Amino acid sequence: MKFLASPAGTVAAALLLINGAEATQSERSRAVAHFSKRHPTYRAATRAQSSNTSDYRFFNNRTKPHLVESLPDVHFDLGEMYSGSIPIDDSNNGSRSLFYIFQPKIGEPSDDLTVYLNGGPGCSSEQGFFQENGRFTWQPGTYAPVINEYSWVNLTNMLWVDQPVGTGFSVGNVTATNEDEIAADFLNFFAKFEDLYGIKNFRIFITGESYAGRYMPYISSAMLDKNDTTRFNLSGALLYDACIGQWDYIQAELPAYPFVKQHASLFNFNQSYMNELETTYEECGYKAYFDEYFAFPPSGIQPPKYMNYSECDIYNMIYYEAYNPNPCFNPYRVIDECPLLWDVLGWPTDLAYEPAPTTYFNRMDVKKALHAPLDVEWELCSTDLVFAGGDSDPGPEQQGDDSPNPTEGVLPRVIEATNRVLIANGDWDYLIITNGTLLAIQNMTWNGQLGFQSAPATPIDIKMPDLQWNEIFEAQEGYGGLDGPQGVMGVQHYERGLMWAETYQSGHKQPQDQGRVSYRHLQWLLGQVETL
């Protein structure tokens, strides 16, 4: 999701976290050995895949032009990987097309296909592929890409798509004015993708983050409309830090002051400014509204509210003031501070560090390797609108998206059809605030009842050992065994087909910040575990 109110070049890139519970060297070794036996796909992830295409499940004469044989600066075997553009329209002339990256599951084959979409609107899913849940990852401030031990390709076939048209490497005239039209374009692309790779009767899971909280329910609902399980066997959805309700009021303004109060040491406002915020919070009616409707079970349907931006924009009062104590304030991850880390994806730090290397996906050798359009100037988040309505039209951030909020219809439908939907929020995210998302859920009716009937309280206990950084810890004298199981990393709650997860120590991009927790989320989505 793009934060349009932010001054150019001031949003910080995510920092790299290393967290772990204490354990002895022998306990750590036993944990890794035990986990590897139970999860052989992890062992497969650390081995170079065979470059013999006869081993590739989806390789044929039609897919050969899409095969990615190598990537610049990625100094290990990619394994089976494809990318390219697929026309949306029946003309097949490519004038309107969506760009994708496809990585089949490592190890034993699976008849599951998981789609991951980034938000914006207009943010490229190459970010999800390269820094969140792809087979390898190149994090901000690091020298080179490495294998991602918590990659989702250990569990499922993965498909990242630049959509809608105008996003990333996806080209064509921008025509959509609502989510139904976005979904129609996606389904046209998806059917052609399945035909190209011979995919039939796969379980389909739609996942993503941020503004994709609007894309995903509409795409999922459109799949249900098709009543065709050969192509569109929708089996679940996972929404990270998602825009699902009335974003400006319910998910931003109402929970903003309680968020700052909860994280007071991170914002470090002086007492007089905290008093001013509290007064605004009370006099604008936010406190009374939040106290009444942030309840379990819900106290009733939440009446619609409209913003008084001239006097009650407490969200932006907080946002702009945050740059005084912390010039590198990052609403996506509020613990970040200066210096900004250089990011291979070129945003948001490209305006801060000049000169800097060319953004990875704008390099000509990278474009050629990925079969991407050579004449497209790739942006992580498009500076042009991807809805045709214009920037004065409705929708979150006034981006021209005039569709109803997902909580008002399509999201409940997806929950009821699959009974396998997970909504998760990171506790360090100011852009989509955890309690704002919960408040939106409490105004949604699904499977016969309004909201959750009891408050989330069950811990998420991550027993998975650290596999990403263990070699670094083991190589340093005195540090071996300090990177064991994480322990409690959040709170979960399940009712009537919907799983809620609050993720500790995570910002807006949970697969990037908390790979182990995100991996557990996916296991639940795929039905491999029944609790988080």
Please sum up the structure shown.
By secondary structure, the chain is an alpha/beta fold. 30% of the residues lie in helices and 14% in strands.
Tell me the span between the first and last alpha carbons.
26 Å
Give the CATH level 1 class of one domain.
Answer: Alpha Beta
**Annotated CATH architecture of one domain:** 3-Layer(aba) Sandwich
Computed over alpha carbons, the radius of gyration is 22 Å
Helical content class: 25-40%
* Residue share in β-strands: 5-15%
How are the strands of the biggest sheet laid out side by side? 1-2-6-3-7-8-9-14-13-12
Strands, count: 14
Number of DSSP helical runs = 17
What characterizes the major β-sheet?
Answer: 10 strands, mixed
Shape: globular
In round numbers, the mean pLDDT is 88
Which class do the helix and strand fractions yield?
A: alpha/beta
Question: What do we call the CATH topology of one domain?
Answer: Rossmann fold
How is this fold's topology laid out?
Layout: H1 25-38, H2 40-46, E1 82-87, E2 97-103, E3 112-117, H3 126-131, E4 136-137, E5 146-147, E6 157-162, H4 179-197, E7 203-209, H5 212-226, E8 233-240, H6 247-262, H7 264-267, H8 271-283, H9 286-293, H10 309-312, H11 314-321, H12 364-369, H13 410-418, E9 421-426, H14 434-441, E10 445-446, E11 449-450, E12 458-462, H15 470-475, E13 487-495, E14 498-503, H16 510-513, H17 515-525
Parallel strand pairs: 3-6, 3-7, 7-8, 8-9, 9-14
Antiparallel strand pairs: 1-2, 2-6, 4-5, 10-11, 12-13, 13-14
Helix pairs in contact: 1-2, 4-5, 5-13, 6-14
